[in-house]
Amino acid sequence: MTTGQAEAGAVTAPATAAERRRITVRGVVQGVGFRPFVHTLATELGLTGHVTNTGEGVVTEVEGAAAALAAFGRRIRTDAPPLAVVETVDAEDVVVTGDTGFHILPSRADGLCRTLVSPDAATCEACLAELADPADRRHRHPFLTCTHCGPRFTIVTGVPYDRALTTMDRFPMCPRCAQEYADPADRRFHAQPISCHDCGPRLRLLTADPADRTRPPIPAPGPDPVAGARRLLADGAIVAVKGLGGYHLVCDASNDTAVTLLRRRKARGDKPFALMARHIDDIAHLVRAGAEERALLTGPVRPIVLLRRRPDPAPAPDAPVLSGAVAPGSPDLGVMLPYTPLHHLLLGLPGDPPPVSAPPERGDPHGPRLLVMTSGNVAGEPIVTDDDEAVRRLVHLADAWLTHDRPIRIPCDDSVVRFSDGEPLFLRRSRGYAPLPVPLPVPVRPALATGGDLKNVLCVAEGDRAWLSAHIGDMDDLATQLAFEEAEAHLETVTGVRPQVLATDRHPGYRSGQWAQRHTDGRPLVRVQHHHAHIAAAMAEHGLPDGHPVIGVAFDGTGYGDDHAIWGGEILLADYDGYRRFGQLAYVPLPGGDTTVRRPYRMALAHLRAAGLDWAADLPPVAACPPQERQLLARQLERHLNCVPTSSMGRLFDAVSSLAGICHHAGFEAQAAVALEAAALTAGGDHGPGYAFGLRAAPLGTTGADTVADPAPVLAAVVADLRAGTAPALIAARFHTAVADLVRRGCALARERVGLTTVALTGGVFANTLLAEAAARLLRQDGFTVLRHRRVPPNDGGLALGQIVVAARTAGAAAR
């Protein structure tokens, strides 16, 4: 019987007759104060009974008058705690027992887990008020939390969610915390991470010996580790700070010397750093932030939000200065606000004394108001969570460690989000979102998908829900592969999914695929084509049911193709069960693989050669390529040595970035493409005559595609513009317009041939909002329904969702 049916049935019962009802609530209902909420609600309505956590969710039995039961059934959904996500409410009548009072019972671990663990949540306003109140017993407590905020996912060791199954189990509650925990009228009633100065975790500040970094760090002098860390930051030090999901490397974002030193130590190249600001007003002079961005920055998740920089910032007299070394050349700043009590303390509470007695010219006398907050790891490795490992692995990066003794069960990097067309677009879905499930429009067998080797995220699914892990990283090193195994085991634990099917990418060299092959244990392993997975992910997150194929435009850097080439500029006609390659970017040789990715000038030269354009000395990539390397590259292209053909749109962006003289060397993934977008954003409104790709029918039996997009006319037009003295920004803008127009023409041709009217835009290239918004606008003008990613990233961070839908159904069909 549903809640509605139970309420309807209750109307005809005598008003004085007592009834009893068992109500099971599923969703994110553990770790969010749901049982205390139920206790308070039942008591208010004069109902008796009990509530408990189980593997299925929160189960309540309530007894009393029919009208009160009906109100309880309504309000358990509508009045739920702020962090709760109520997915289903099921009710059934049970035998009246004559209970007295209402009680919270111990959790039951019966059956498989089907409840949802809450993500970590930013410190709530009530806790912040206590943090700043000298009269409150939790004044300045770095681990302040309640039922509405604080750590959840990163401290959970098992379910149901109780203190004994979190990393807080080593901290026995003091009498006062125990009293609050047991008091139904208290905000910390059954708050599992509850603690205070007397019983909670402890901070420590360790400092390195600058003369000998091979020696272990020593405890810093002074009674207050936070004050010591603030003093170090104000003096230009780099401090490794332990957060919710791992360590951050932190320095004063206004201090050029400190930021440059961190960039050099971390071998960061020009990759932008993320910022943490004390208050949103502290970055108002630097970036544009609309209502949606402000709501996300100040809400319970508080991810890194990418905000467009103001072209000519005009700071107020007291506004903090930003070092130019934080995000050189980037059109955006990645900004977040404090989301833990420790962050608030580190940035300083109102009335805090200055951390230094140095002259004002050394920085803000009240301490840094903008902090660089970058993942605490060596480049390419996962974020560090273990304290001993943090000292060992970060010893050459940090001058000090602000650490504590509450273990982190699972790493969880900061999420990264930007807004596009008024909707959130994930670039990294992690802290604050993992492990919230994504609803599936088609039922799937219990399955595990391993994602890809870049931006790895794995996924488990069963029935109509899929759970994605936090961001794991690039699978190039052993540390990331071990983190992958930890994340896989943890995700199975908190979801209760026992995979019967494994899914992975078709690339034979992917380490994620090799792991899946080693761990089949007799289960089917389904290899899913990379771009089919991207498209299926977009379809699934938009709830497309079976029998609704789409035109999938998948533009990215690398994906293993059916013909063993490197795909990445694809138009596929696809549904969950399969795909057909309708269109592709023309193949060009990729000389030297990763070497060419790091040196975009090589890709430009390969594209020029394929387009029949000379390597003239006046062209920027020709000048950028050393003469000896240029000779070897010419020979390599002539003889097709180590030259895999590629249709990658990402590599074409690299080529045009170099050809326009914008970026010849890439120190991080997609740097050349990001720089090309940044240049295009400065071009103004009138771009003049545009460029156009050639479209031609593919020769039969060559690539499997019907249509080939030829970039040669675009490249020839770029060369002509260069020689006419056209500004690089204008060339960049015209190229973006040409790619958006290619999407429009390719989809129109597909609609003409097969009649499909829904387009999915996916792949890492569509993280470029200038391109994505332009393409979507043109498609909508032509009457298409456009699907863009809103729940998972368009890049490989969303790959596992598509893999799991395709593979679980493929394996299911084979089994039938």
From TrEMBL:
Catalytic activity: an acyl phosphate + H2O = a carboxylate + phosphate + H(+); C-terminal L-cysteinyl-[HypE protein] + carbamoyl phosphate + ATP + H2O = C-terminal S-carboxamide-L-cysteinyl-[HypE protein] + AMP + phosphate + diphosphate + H(+)
Enzyme class label: ligase
Entry annotated with the keyword Cell division: no
Acylphosphatase-like domain segment(s): 20-106
GO MF annotations in UniProt: ligase activity
Top-level taxonomic group: Bacteria
Active site (record annotation): 35, 53
EC number annotated for this UniProt entry: 6.2.-.-
Family to which this protein belongs: Belongs to the carbamoyltransferase HypF family.
Protein name according to UniProt: Carbamoyltransferase
Organism, as annotated: Streptomyces mooreae
